[in-house]
Amino acid sequence: MPTLVLTIKKTVFYKKMIASENQNDGLAETNRKIVLAADLGGTNLRMAAVDYDGKILYRTKLKTPKTNDSAAIVEAIVESAIECRRESKVRGEISTIAAAVPGTVDRKNGVIVKAPNLPALDGLQISSVLKRKLNLSCLLENDANAAAIGENWLGASKNFQDSIFVTLGTGVGGGIIINGKILRGVDGTAGEIGHICVEPFGAECGCGSRGCVEQYSSATAVVRLAGELSERFPKSDSSVDSTVTSSEIYSAAKAGDKLGLEVFRRQGFYLGIALAGLINLLNPEIIVVGGGAAAAWELFMPHAVEQIHKRAYSEPAKRAKIVRARLGDDAGILGAARLAFN
Is domain 12-147 classified as CATH 3.20.20.20? Predict the structure, then answer.
């Protein structure tokens, strides 16, 4: 069968190589354990060469192709992997790529079952495709699970045995660690925090349900809520049109804009409902909140905490530390790498 070759025009936002401490003629030391780790999001694709200690040797970042063609997304991953493998200048063999993807996955068979924000990938047997194209063994994981593992390895939940990770980005994702191990469930769908229903007759969700917390607490939701509420705030300083971004709404809210403040109040309100349920169910030691939409922490988190204390059992609610993620965009990459090393 002929191989389809796709040419992708990509915009690399940044590339950064971190040299090893002991280099000889620009080459890292021999026998160093290295893996490639990919974090595929609805907005960006990140790739890195990572060593056993969690040190990122080289990284790339590009826009996730907006397409209905899964082959274009796969080719973007392949190009990034080839670049990282080439530019990390490692003498030792790189034998594994670990891919964190935004959706439910069948890890055993390497299949993306459903990716609500990247539907082109639904049903794709991505592990076998990457293995064939890169000649590397491939490990597949849900992106939020990977981020939870990354934060538990080197980030905010390090040394905690029972933790919950919530990521607020294009959507809302989650990962649950119990007794130091990621909770996957019998079908691999455990931890889909973004699809907890918080408004039974609410907005339709890409997962097929409606009223999911993803529709109220993600960056996408912030923009939608601003549009829906704009008529109630005719004197708002926010210009709500098809080009407005969540960061612009955040800036307006920080300056005291009433529309923006109401949007983030709602974001926190619905997030708090979801977290209160998780606290009652799992009694975690710590809840770590990350993702791009967590930048508005001071605007939405007080409302989330208020709902937690109204709705969750008192002692578990007091016990659970609620903190910001420490690893930023590297959480998914480092978690995927950790899985590959293990």
Answer: no
Q: Tokens 């300083």 label which residue?
A: 237
The phi, psi pair for 16, rounded to 5°, reads: -145, 125
What are the C-alpha distances in Å from 228 to residues 189, 260, 303? 31, 12, 20
Give the C-alpha separation, 151 to 288, whole Å: 8
Asked whether 163 and 157 are in contact (CB, 8 A), the reply is yes
Fold match between 12-147 and 156-324? yes
Confidence at residue 4, expressed as pLDDT on a 0 to 100 scale: 37
Homologous superfamily, domain 156-324: ATPase, nucleotide binding domain (3.30.420.40)
Q: Is 315 within 8 Å of 321 (Cβ atoms)? A: no
The DSSP code sequence of 27-49 is BPPTT--EEEEEEE-SSEEEEEE
Q: Evaluate if residue 12 carries a pLDDT over 70.
A: no
Rounded Cα gap, residues 137 and 310, in angstroms: 48
> Count of CB atoms within 10 A of residue 266's CB?
19
Phi and psi (nearest 5°) for 319?
Answer: -70, -40
- Parse the chain into domains and list their residue ranges: 12-147, 156-324
pLDDT digits (tens, 9 = 90+) for 224-255: 999 999 989 887 766 677 789 999 999 999 99
Q: What does pLDDT average to over the chain?
A: 89
Radius of gyration of the chain (CA): 20
